[in-house]
């Protein structure tokens, strides 16, 4: 008897519990609960086509869009996303070589959530400023 | 002329850009892109009533549910969530005192996203394991 992808997913959800620090899904949650992961997954797919892949972006484009990210941090985060299977890395033998990143289906399955997180921060910034001022006044 | 909450939100979304490290919303995104924030916001509202507030949880309950969190980390994260206006902290003068936390409307507006993130990690853990094995074999 074969199990469908949906059945497998249902079982996985039942078996893993990210509340528990010893559960591997806790470590996976820790890895994706990261501002650079949120921003990279939000960015990919937002641009135009690159190397024929819809939503793919060059390393240099990502680096420009995520103003403030260090080369080391961007490279490390992209490598970990590639290893986990959320992005693909394509090297085109131009001079100099072109390196592009695109979302896999798994990466795509997280993109909506990541964009919601980014959008939430932008939308509610003013409310949070107000709340902080009120708190600081109350606590003294 | 008064501006509605919706208009204010729309303007805020237009003014802030979390891609930019210098934008305050980037720091807010960094703060909520945190595994303990994800787990606390996922947890609150999942339990029963506490002190008459639906979904409120005692500090001790949260501490038990988030197995592995240090007291210092839990206290710091809750204080920052309270200051930002995502949770309320209620002290009831029992012996010993009971401290309960509940989501505000702002916290509630992020809860769905946080639960989606936690659920994503639990649902896709097996796929990520497979992807890592494939990557490690390929890269060697």
Explain how this protein is built.
2 copies of one chain form a homodimer. Chain A has 140 residues and is an alpha+beta fold. Chain A has 2 domains: 1-33, no CATH class; 34-134, Arc Repressor Mutant, subunit A. Helices cover 60% and strands 13% of the residues of chain A. Chain A is built from 6 helices and 5 strands; from the N terminus they run αααβββααββα. Chain A has a 3-stranded antiparallel sheet with strand order 3-5-4. In chain A, a hairpin with a 2-residue loop joins β1 and β2. In chain A, α3 crosses α6. The radius of gyration of chain A is 19 Å and the shape is globular.
Assembly state of the chains shown: homodimer
Please identify which CATH superfamily of the largest domain in chain A we are dealing with.
Answer: Winged helix-like DNA-binding domain superfamily/Winged helix DNA-binding domain
Share of helical residues of chain A? 55-70%
CATH topology of the largest domain in chain A: Arc Repressor Mutant, subunit A
As a whole number of angstroms, the C-alpha radius of gyration of chain A is: 19 Å
Q: What sort of overall outline of chain A do the alpha carbons produce when their principal axes are compared?
A: globular
Unreliable stretches of chain A: none
SS content category of chain A: alpha+beta
Mean pLDDT figure of chain A = 90
SS field, number of helical segments of chain A:
6
Q: Tell me the greatest interface.
A: A-B, 58 and 58 residues
Number of domains of chain A: 2
Q: Gap between N and C termini of chain A, in Å?
A: 65 Å
Q: CATH class of the largest domain in chain A, anyone?
A: Mainly Alpha
Report the strand count of chain A: 5
